[in-house]
Write a structure and sequence with these properties.
Blueprint (H helix, E strand, L loop, with lengths): L2 E3 L14 H13 L13 H7 L2 H14 L2 E5 L6 H10 L9 E5 L5 H11 L4 E6 L6 H18 L7 E5 L5 H9 L2 E4 L13 H9 L4 H14 L8 H14 L4 E6 L5 H15 L7 E6 L8 H6 L4 E10 L24 H18 L4 E8 L2 H21 L11 H11 L4
Parallel strand pairs: 2-3, 2-4, 4-5, 5-6, 7-8, 7-9, 9-10
Antiparallel strand pairs: 1-10
Length: about 425
């Protein structure tokens, strides 16, 4: 289970500390399905539901793709790709020799980016996983037409066998196309919003193709969701949600999510959508941003240390490395680094993280540490469940609907109008 260390933020709290009574009310509101957006709280039961229904079919489809193709093109935007990409880059940053490459498109209208992906595919055998609840979102719809044409040119009448659709179970343009052409299909659940959908086929199919053990992910998520139902201030989701809301009330309106693993970058992108889209409404919300340590200590470090005191910092730490490297000794010690000789690189990194936390706290930046045992399937599942649960509780604590996103539609209306889309 994820652990939260609030000692680096305690000096910024009020005397009363985090409001766990309000967190308890928010958690009860979520569990009772009595709050705003209650028809989109199916993500709480999602891991068990997927295991009981689609999981084995997801694994079978992934094995089919892995056996015949060197690449999978995943077409989706926002919650339809960020979780899967975050998982793959976190757990499989260096694909194995037998792992297909996974390309993500449909999240941009850049012709250069699309053409670069086509060039990278070259003459590789590939499959397409198109992910969209409706099938009408412009960015993925444009990409799907382009890559569907590539499939048709490459495979002719067999092209439809290389398309896997993850979409609404009953309605929508993509659902209709899938039925018409016989594409193998998986479900975007009706009661789960896109940003909460990574533990459904939306995320699990691309993850399984990349070589991630999605059975382990699902089993770990089932256990984690049960653990996070704890109704107590000992619940790490309560601790994180209540602490960030307390700090927000004291003027810390920007949250930096940091990690000392470069492979965490797209997990941070998924987190930014999760919290930004869930809490940023009604004139409220903590602005979610991310930094990559150690690299950003030498670019953003100055601002964090000495800029406006509107920042709070949440640091994800994996307490055990997957592999160890011992720093070597060198005759002559020309670089002056022999004082580190014989120490594990992971230990050096942890000391650096402690030094950064001390500096930032002293400089006026409240610091929360989110500890995860390992960077593996169980660690990924624990993080997803923890952040989702804390997000819902935090949203209800701030009295917004954590599960809608009315502001997202505004740019779409303008875009369709300017492009001349028929009514």
């Amino acid at each position: 289970m994820v652990k939260v260390d609030l000692s680096g933020a305690a000096g910024f709290f009020t005397a009363a500390g985090p409001d766990y009574e309000l967190a308890a009310i928010a958690h009860k509101t979520l569990a009772d399905k009595s709050g705003l957006g209650n028809d989109f709280t199916g993500w709480v039961e999602l891991p068990q539901r997927v295991k009981d229904t689609e999981l084995e079919r997801i694994v079978a489809a992934a094995e089919k793709i892995r056996a015949r193709s060197r690449a999978l093109v995943v077409i989706g935007i926002g919650g339809s790709y960020l979780g899967a990409r975050g998982a793959i880059e976190l757990l499989r940053p260096m694909p194995g020799r037998d792992d297909p490459r996974v390309f993500f498109v449909g999240n941009t209208l850049s012709s250069d980016a699309v053409c670069d992906t086509i060039d990278a595919l070259g003459d590789m055998d590939f499959d397409v996983n198109v992910i969209s609840k409706s099938g009408t979102t412009l960015e993925p719809a444009v990409a799907f037409r382009i890559f569907r044409e590539l499939l048709q040119k490459k495979y002719g009448k067999d092209a439809d066998g290389h398309i896997f659709a993850t979409t609404d179970a009953h309605k929508g343009v993509l659902n209709g196309l899938a039925r018409q052409h016989g594409w193998e299909s998986f479900v975007v659940p009706d009661d789960v919003g896109g940003r909460f959908s990574v533990l459904s086929a939306v995320g699990l199919l691309p993850m399984a193709v990349a070589g991630i053990d999605v059975r382990r992910v699902t089993d770990a998520a089932i256990s984690e969701m049960k653990a996070l139902d704890l109704r107590s201030p000992e619940n790490p989701a309560w601790q994180y949600a209540a602490a960030r809301q307390l700090l927000y009330g004291k003027g810390y309106s920007i949250e930096l999510l940091a990690c000392y693993e470069p492979s965490f970058r797209f997990m941070a992108e998924w987190w930014k959508q999760l919290y930004g889209e869930s809490e940023g409404k009604d004139g409220k919300g903590i602005f979610p941003a991310s930094v990559e340590f150690n690299a950003d200590l030498h670019s953003m470090g100055q601002y964090i240390q000495s800029g406006p005191r509107t920042l709070m910092e949440s640091v994800v730490r994996f307490t055990a490395s997957r592999r160890e490297l011992v720093f070597p000794s060198e005759d002559g010690n020309a670089d002056g680094l022999n004082y580190l000789a014989g120490r594990k690189l992971s230990d050096i990194s942890l000391v650096a993280a402690d030094a950064v936390r001390e500096a930032h706290v002293t400089g006026g930046v409240p610091n929360m540490v989110i500890e995860v045992p390992r960077r593996d399937e169980e660690g990924f599942a624990a993080l997803v469940c923890f952040f989702e649960m804390a997000c819902a509780i935090s949203g209800y604590m701030s009295r917004v609907n954590p599960f809608n996103q009315p502001g997202v539609e505004e740019y779409k209306k303008n875009m369709f109008r300017m492009l001349g889309k028929p009514e």
